[in-house]
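User: quick one, fold this
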Amino acid sequence: MTVSLATTANPAGGGQLWQLAVIAGVYWGGTGGLWWLVQAHRSGRTRVLARAGAAAAWVFRLPRWAALPVVVAVVSLLCLMFGGFWDIGYHIDKGRDPGPLGNPGHWPMLLGFFGSFAAGFLALGLADQRDATPAWIALRRDWRVPVGGVLMTGCSAFGLAALPIDDLWHRIFGQDVTLWSPTHFLLLGGATMTVIGMIVLTTEGARARALRPQRRVPVEAPLEDGAPWARLELPGRHTARLARVELFAGQELARRIGRIWSRAQRFALMGGMLAALEAFLAEYDWGVPLYRQVWQPLLLAAFAGLVFTAARSSCGRGGALGAWAIYLIVRLAATLMPVLAGESPSMLPLFFAEALCVELVATQIHPRGRPLAFGAAAGLLCGTAGFAAEYGWSQVAMPLPWTPALIPEGLPSAALAGVAGGLLGALFAAALRRELPPRRVARSVCIGAFALLVALGVNAGMKTLPNASAHVQLTDVRAAPHREAFATIRLDPANAADHANWFYILAWQGHAPRIVDRLQRLGEGVYRSIAPIPLDGTWKIGLRLNRGRARGAVALRLPADAALANANRVLPASYSRAQAASLLRKSNGAELPAAASFTRPFVEDGWIVLREERIDVPSWVWAAAIALIGVLYTCFIAALSLGVARFARRDSHEEASRARSLPTPVVVPGAVR
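Assistant:
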């Protein structure tokens, strides 16, 4: 007798309309409130932003139009990241949520999305016209705004726009409870690239602060623009100064500490960007990836090459290691979030060897004198030496250790991706210094690096289906209703898992921490689970295989899903490859019991993991939707690149004009230098 236990009927399509209306009301209402606050500030009706901006300016040694938005963005993006990791752990352990307001991890995420947008909006509203440069963008004749503020606003708005697109996607195609959903890429990309806008904004702010004496911009009060950072003066009611606090004795020491503090801010943002980029690989960190293993070293090398090269080039000696330290702190904190919420923990890539390699390359190739050579060499080491280091780290820390099977494809992919990332990082750092190579060279390198990454991604996306089946025998160690059993697996052919990238049993969405059982090899083609596997309640169990380009899974147990069609059906214990499509793909929601023994073929992984996907949608609709997402992402990256280039080119022209206008210094022979 088979007992069917349906999972909780959380929606399998879009969110509930009332919850979407609440979110829209809060977001639109919040945007209206921001607009009113900015207009009141610009007209002098309120001093709230001025006071908050002045305090942030004093701490960060930046004008308030740069300091306050960056503070708001940092807090918001940390909320977004912590909520995101909480959300991933929730979906891995519990499955779908009842709606956007029914998942506790969504609350900090929703706050973070809007907070990052508000930060960009504040950068536009607080912009001081006396600091305007030719790169600033004119919103009105009397209102020009910094490029970094526009980039922050645009990136965060891109992420916010992805929220309704994601809900529409779920209504058309069904829910895809995976991080690597097309619309989730929009959310991740918008949030991650906001950090680039923050880096540009702080660079603009530091430059404006340095040029204020030359531009004769008056300092209204010591706290107004953060200039006298080593001294805080408190105004009194009846006296000009109530108190003055000196942080450092002596102007030279204050300047030195100030320079160190400014550098620390830059590599802190770089480290934060690496933590945000690494979030793309979170499913690998949990051991539940839906794509081939080659993606992991490829993206790790690209991210390391991009961030560490940019950090070392723009922050100077120790910049890459400083960025690594911040990455480690942020990423460890994000790892703790799901643990504190009672969800499965994730692991994290180490990245230390990559940072060290970049620092070593900088001792041989000057990052400013030969930026592209430095970027290519540093990126190459990130992809080769970094691959070796992460290979070793995966053996002791990652849920799915790398195997020798990964080397033939993974090492070349990582090396090329590292070079592409290193070149992009070198260009980004050169743009921050306003020292971009000639336009044709910069454009060719940028487009070439992106094209190389796309080509590597296309290769990594290629896959085939394992031509194999598994005979599974379950030996119960605990009876129902809390059934547990050891699984003994015999493969046909017996060598189907030889030299595999991974071959393991995954148990997930059982309202308990997910299980990754890497199996014990008993003989040729015979494997056994290391620990008993839970076979009750809402647990989904799959046997997963990735061997080169072959990737697939055998469903060992799937509970009935009351929110899907066919929830009242029970599938046969054994079936052939010819029957698999009609049974699994066309009967999603039906129960697949875990009989005492059965034989099943390897099928497409998504048929098991993404049961909520609708199969009645025409293929051309899917293709058109994917193409639209691709166009949106391409336009987004292109606009971001053009914004960074605008900042670098136009500001460098202004600097050259100012240098030509300065009087030629007179050199007196014998003068003391």
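User: anything notable?
Assistant: Residues 1-8, 219-229, 659-673 have pLDDT under 50 and may be disordered.
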